[in-house]
Design brief:
By secondary structure, the protein is mainly alpha-helical. It has 18 helices and 4 strands. The protein has a two-stranded antiparallel sheet.
Amino acid sequence: RMITRPAGTPTHMAPEVFAKRYSHPADLWSVGIICFVSMCGNLPWIATTREELAKKVTHDIIHFHGRHWQNVSQHALEFISHLLAKSAKHRFTASDALKDKWITTNELALGKAKLPWKVIEDLRKFRSRNRFKRAALHVIASMLGDEEVREQRRAFLQLDRDGDGFFTVEELRDSLRRMVFAPGTGDLEETSKASKIDLGSRDGSGSNDAEGFTYTEFLAATFDMRKALQMGLCQAAFASFDKNKDGAISISELATGKMLGRMTMDEVVETMESLDVDGNCELDYGEFVKMMRGETLASLGSAEGQGQAQG
């Protein structure tokens, strides 16, 4: 059905929106404007009034001039032009856009990319960590800026092949087969690894292929902890669990933390005992940082034992 009331950001509105008679194709025009701005950093038209903008959007031809467009491929220019066709009838549909050569060519290039196996190991380790540490990693990941997670975002896009913001273990296996066993590589060992990926389950009870990763969980599993420590994000994460702001995380604060999900009291006590170095039944910031660095009582005890043996 046709919509007769203009809505949206004027700079991104299609000609038919200004004419007050539009439908779904107007959304594709907005996508075209977003692509245009992403490529060159500027809007196609400059206007000081809504009336002037409407006139330019409706009648002016789009130009791809200037240094910002020098390194943009012809496929990209054609893609944007199809999205910004003045006539809604001649404009790309969403299906047309997804089948366009610029999209499919980039998808194939992305599909052949090499994904570091460290990412897979990070995902596996994340599922094996205690629930408290996973929750803390979630908090830190949510505070990271775009620059800190650029590589992780790229890796996630390689794995999330249907673009729903989530990938299952089977999708991961399929993506790895495409990336690792690219045509002509013949790397049978890596391909065999891809078919046997097992990331474990969220509750640590074992393998569950249905339990994939959301984008946030993926970031929590793969971001560089060294950067987080340098940026002071551990302090902010600690504060989110220290509800009464007394400088320590108590058993009751662990038990009532919503970010931890449903933990039995046995799980809470076990978590506390594994991290509480000084044995006072609460975690101070130093103990929290040791946990984030991967130091637990078990690992500390093992290191101490090795030191005594060497002595």
